[in-house]
Amino acid sequence: MNSDEVQVIKKTWEIPVATPTDSGAAILQEFFNRFPSNLEKFPFRDVPLEDLSGNSRFRAHAGRIIRVFDDSIRVLGQEGDVEKLEEIWTKIAVSHIPRTISKESYNQLKGVILEVLTAACSLDEGQAATWAKLVDHIYGIIFKAIDDDGNAIQ
């Protein structure tokens, strides 16, 4: 990413990171509302959809998602940022491989992440494209780790 793109990401990120748990919860709630079968892969799968927002396990997971993105955004523009992003997201991917999450499910989440960020941050077309570029890069790292494992569901 060039320096202008990094600045767009860092500036617009200020909105969701200000309330990390609520921001992560908004993403996950929308994800499960649209694709409820994905709930089966999560530790709070026994919680009804309408009760998720108040569930402590759900909120903890939501907060962790935003923290990982925050760690990633903090390294953007620093020396070695590409390697640091690879390290952060490979670790996430490897930790999720035992859950046998399909690439389709990952892509469903990707779409929701971008839609929720676009709405929450009032992104214009250019800003949304910059975020899509970052998330595409992150997903490239995730899918490479999944493919390298050899046990992943396509």
Helix percentage range: over 70%
DSSP strand (E) fraction? under 5%
Shape: globular
Overall mean pLDDT stands at 93
Gyration radius, in Å: 15 Å
Structure in words:
There is one protein chain. With 154 residues, this protein is mostly helical. Helix content is 71%, strand content 0%. It contains six helices and no strands. The chain has helices at 3-18, 20-34, 56-75, 81-96, 103-120, 125-149. Helix 1 (3-18) crosses helix 6 and helix 5 (103-120) packs antiparallel against helix 6 (125-149). The longest helix is centred in the last third of the chain and has 25 residues, at 125-149. The protein is globular and about 45 Å long. Pfam families: Globin. Belongs to the globin family.
How would you sum up this structure in a few lines?
The protein is an all-alpha fold. It has 6 helices and no strands.
Keywords:
oxygen binding, 154 residues, globular, 0% strand, 6 helices, single chain, Globin/Proto, 71% helix, heme binding
